[in-house]
């Protein structure tokens, strides 16, 4: 007999993957097709056979090789599936049914969890934008005139969003002045990614208050960046090849419900944003990030110090009538806090020191943790990647 | 009996939709699912039943609601399907089989022909980039330092690529200084779009010479642009909401083979581009464009005056190792020729006259024509759209 609300899964209770977390992912066992699972402790629950046995209406969504079908079902199904899974994992009487479908993480391969529709990247940390402004425009204003009026963003390449663990081949390209070769300033951007479940209609903005109706969950996100390629190409249409070679996301998508205890007031916005950006009651997320390079924690960016909120980014993205699709992904932009040990890119961490950029063989891991709804901490999906040499 | 190489389809021989054209599209009859057809004269050949009757290996690709499955088959299949269709439409002995599957255009609905993967937009017309530079930076150099070293480009929103005929709702958003309201400077960009069929591997650039191995065909493309929204938001990460509300493409995708007689030398490139951009033998396309506003031809941009070639754009897009997917779409950027009556945007046509921008109810159509392989002219798919008022 377990305490109500406590999981019977061995080793999971009190861990960072307890029943207050329950992130979704796509896994496979050797020789089998990938399908949807949920993480509990150090195991994956294979949802498809359990859902079929319990004749769940939406059992087919767990047989897919991405979370998109589940995400497309919308908020009510997302919430009721979570309640159902919580019951399975806390009610001892479900144990005989469920236990045979708990697979050790060590026995599975994990895959890209979503089929990415459009990928947008924002630039929502004031500290990051200020740092970058100071580095690139030492004599000008650190922030450009539009920065406090709207969450600046742009579209990235969705076809090169890869799963955590995918090796990153150093990109080759043009550098300032038209020189050509492998990037010499390969960088990371420690971000949080938001995944859209429920689509919206073309021509109809998604209001600020509809965030949780549309956003399914969050992923860890590393927006790999070649600073030298980016510096040469980016005027006047923005970053292109300096970013499009790879963006890594975590295997696990943490549903928005798991972050219910993580909402906090933003640091404050001045000037007050326009009404469509929901001024006055803007909430950020109290998520701690660790940037780990070759095993050493080099920085601890706090997501709660972001200037623009996740809901403001979504409202802005659609205010012109742009529609949302299931699988749309938007990144927060690099997360940097006010102190030097809270910076989310090597450009800022090194601040002019060229040796701060990535060398071949370097491994970067981003880790994320937040308050859980049961008083403890939950871990969000981590994102890792190793740099491979440029191709000859 | 018809002359060899002449179609037996009534009214098609000698038209701009003769057998030297044969664009693909997705059509439906009332109450039926959309599927793949090919245009001949003023009819659509319903390919699925004919391919099934002839037991074509790839007959299933014609039953899909987009061209992606056909395009994914690659260059050899693309070429052999074209040869097969040409045979069907020129050989009198096929007439009994084929004729029942020729549907008048008036009896069908046409749909978005492709499932768009990533959408990239270039800026490859020197005349357009120079005009825009002169309008926005009258005291600076018209072209930025990188412009003649690489085809400048950026990612757009693939989820809002819509089929010709889709009404365009005037977007609302922030304008310079943070004012808010419907765009007062709604514009067009007359472009050509290139559609990728054969994918490429992450980490492996697509060489300049592999253009026809990867590109399936071309579409007409209007990259609707809200100049006031764009002007305020675009530093430093490029255009976003000023573009992402809608991009229209033609119903018909003209296969690259139909443009075999349209290749022409580019005007010339100085400085010589880097080797990966295939300097020296760069070919453009001799495609004439007409910009029609409310029934009047207001401009005739010539695609042969572009600075960067379609193959250079593709080589640049992938030089950093970015992979291609079936359904990737890249636009040439606004096509503008050297003379005032060859400009591809209202910004340039009006040159400071605010009344040149689009009013609610305005209808814009882009028409395209090129030399065909039989000595005549072929029409590429046209793109049209009517402006609807901003939503309240």
Automatic annotation (TrEMBL), chains A, B:
It is an enzyme of class 3 (hydrolase). InterPro entries: Fumarylacetoacetase, Fumarylacetoacetase-like_C, Fumarylacetoacetase_C_sf, Fumarylacetoacetase_N, Fumarylacetoacetase_N_sf. Pfam families: FAA_hydrolase, FAA_hydrolase_N. Residues 120-372 form the Fumarylacetoacetase-like C-terminal domain. Its EC number is 3.7.1.2. The keyword Magnesium applies. Residues 21-113 form the Fumarylacetoacetase N-terminal domain. It comes from the Bacteria. This is fumarylacetoacetase. It comes from Nocardioides caricicola.
């Amino acid at each position: 007999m377990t305490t109500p609300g406590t999981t019977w899964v061995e080793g999971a209770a009190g861990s960072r993957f307890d029943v207050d977390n329950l992130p979704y992912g796509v896994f496979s066992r050797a020789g089998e097709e990938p399908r949807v699972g949920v993480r509990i402790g150090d195991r994956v629950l294979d949802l498809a056979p359990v859902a079929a046995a319990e004749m769940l209406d939406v059992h087919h969504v767990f047989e897919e090789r991405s979370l998109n079908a589940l995400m497309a079902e919308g908020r009510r199904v997302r919430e009721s599936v979570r309640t159902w899974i919580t019951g399975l994992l806390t009610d001892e009487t479900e144990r005989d049914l469920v236990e045979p479908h708990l697979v050790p993480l060590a026995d599975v391969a994990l895959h890209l969890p979503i089929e990415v529709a459009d990928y947008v990247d924002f630039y929502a940390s004031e500290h990051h934008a200020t740092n970058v402004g100071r580095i690139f425009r030492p004599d000008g204003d650190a922030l450009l005139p539009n920065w406090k009026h709207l969450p600046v963003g742009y579209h990235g390449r969705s076809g090169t969003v890869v799963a955590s663990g995918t090796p990153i081949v150093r990109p080759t390209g043009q550098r300032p002045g038209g020189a050509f070769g492998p990037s010499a300033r390969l960088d990371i951007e420690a971000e949080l990614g938001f995944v859209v479940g429920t689509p919206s209609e073309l021509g109809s903005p998604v209001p600020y208050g509809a965030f949780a109706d549309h956003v399914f969950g969050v992923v860890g996100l590393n927006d790999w960046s070649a600073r030298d390629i980016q510096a040469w190409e980016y005027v006047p249409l923005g970053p292109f090849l300096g970013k499009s070679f790879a963006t890594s996301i975590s295997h696990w998508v943490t549903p928005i419900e798991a972050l219910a205890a993580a909402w906090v007031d933003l640091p404050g916005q001045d000037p007050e944003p326009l009404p469509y950006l929901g001024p006055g009651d803007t909430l950020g997320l109290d998520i701690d990030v660790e940037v780990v390079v070759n095993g050493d924690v080099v920085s601890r960016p706090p997501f709660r110090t972001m200037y623009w909120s996740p809901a403001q980014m979504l409202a802005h993205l659609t205010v012109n009538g742009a529609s949302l699709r299931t699988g749309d992904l938007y990144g927060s932009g690099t997360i940097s806090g006010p102190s030097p040990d809270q910076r989310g890119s090597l450009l800022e961490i090194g601040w002019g020191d060229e040796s701060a950029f990535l060398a071949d063989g370097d491994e970067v891991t981003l880790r994320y943790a937040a308050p859980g709804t049961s008083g403890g901490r939950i871990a969000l999906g981590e994102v890792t990647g190793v740099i491979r040499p440029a191709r000859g």
